[in-house]
Amino acid sequence: MAEIKQYVQAAEEKMTFAIEYLDDQLAHIRAGKANPKILDSVKVPYYGSLVPLTNVASVNTPDAKTIIITPWEKPLIKEIEKAIMNSEVGITPENNGEIIRLGIPPLTEERRRALAKQSKQEAETAKISIRNARRDAIESIKKSVKADGTPEDVAKDAEAEVQKIHDRFIKKVDDLYAAKEKEIMTV
Question: What's the domain of life for this entry (predicted)?
Answer without folding.
Answer: Bacteria
